Task: inverse folding
């Protein structure tokens, strides 16, 4: 395998569009093909993104001999089938989150990846952004002491709900699967453990899917996490990691900007009865700026290529995907949306 990858995209929706734009701006990837069950849509997408070949089926797109990797951007219930079919066709696969609709499916997908000698990564693109890597390094180096509390928020309001796959129970819709999975991955990343207690409260849309969820996670190392996610409400969508000696504020955690991504390390004023000691206190707030050096999805594609080339570990590995899916399964059981 060379150090560059040629991609075949399954699907022509909004996330596929963002990925195509990112690949065109990447350093070591290029677009080779796109596949859709609607040949007209595939042709239109190919023209819009300068993709050489448009296929009128997913089968043809994963069989394209010019492509090394497949990006699966299909509805949630199709991830399992088409990821496995692409792996068996000899392609590496970047599958959009959530990887699957159950832990059993996710495990089988990775088993097939091992059997075929291909790379499979779940598409949490924020994990490929250098800001996320830097925050992890800061926390691991003790910048905020011991992690105690994690808060994550990811909410938005969908205007056009009719025909939107997020509101389709039969397609494993719902806000947990759409963006709650981000909050779970965030909490698990900074807790450095898997939760042993999981509790959620939810509101259901008239279609039957969860459209607003709040939850708590308890970890065996004593870390507590809270999250909120919704697709019928506005929120600031900031997140934070609080420690014994300070906290990290992340104003744009999920889609950090290419240039000027920021995070702040803050420290509260200690109680008056606490002696400040002889050492001067650290500054109350320090803001750090991180430039990604490329498009968000382009960085993700390049990080995927690095993993395929054996130059770097997957930015979201098998243990991470299985851990995330395990939590989602329990949450969906609690809201009555599991399969």
Result:
């Amino acid at each position: 395998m060379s150090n560059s990858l040629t991609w075949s995209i399954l699907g022509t929706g909004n996330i596929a569009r963002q990925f195509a734009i990112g690949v065109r701006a990447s350093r070591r990837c290029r677009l080779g093909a796109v596949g859709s069950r609607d040949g007209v849509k595939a042709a239109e997408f190919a023209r819009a993104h300068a993709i050489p070949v448009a296929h009128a089926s997913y089968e043809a797109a994963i069989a394209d001999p010019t492509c090394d990797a497949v990006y699966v951007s299909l509805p949630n219930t199709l991830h399992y089938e088409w990821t496995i079919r692409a792996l068996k066709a000899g392609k590496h696969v970047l599958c959009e989150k959530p990887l699957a609709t159950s832990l059993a499916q996710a495990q089988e997908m990775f088993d097939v990846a091992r059997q075929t000698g291909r790379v499979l990564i779940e598409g949490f693109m924020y994990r490929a952004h250098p800001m996320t890597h830097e925050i992890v390094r800061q926390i691991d180096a003790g910048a905020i002491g011991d992690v105690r509390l994690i808060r994550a928020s990811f909410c938005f309001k969908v205007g056009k709900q009719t025909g939107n796959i997020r509101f389709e129970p039969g397609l494993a819709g719902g806000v947990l699967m759409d963006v709650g999975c981000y909050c779970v991955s965030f909490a698990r990343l900074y807790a450095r453990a898997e939760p042993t207690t999981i509790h959620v409260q939810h509101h259901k849309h008239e279609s039957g899917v969860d459209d607003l969820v709040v939850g708590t996670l308890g970890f065996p190392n004593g870390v507590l996490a809270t999250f909120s996610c919704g697709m019928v409400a506005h929120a600031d969508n900031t997140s934070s990691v609080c420690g014994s000696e300070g906290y990290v504020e992340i104003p744009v955690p999920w889609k950090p900007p290419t240039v000027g991504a920021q995070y702040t390390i803050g420290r509260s004023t200690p109680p008056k009865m606490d002696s400040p000691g002889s050492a001067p206190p650290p500054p109350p707030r320090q803001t750090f700026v991180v430039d990604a050096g490329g498009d968000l999805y382009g960085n993700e594609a390049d990080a995927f290529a690095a993993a395929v080339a054996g130059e770097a570990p997957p930015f979201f590995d098998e243990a991470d995907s299985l851990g995330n899916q395990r939590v989602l399964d329990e949450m969906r059981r609690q809201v009555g949306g599991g399969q």
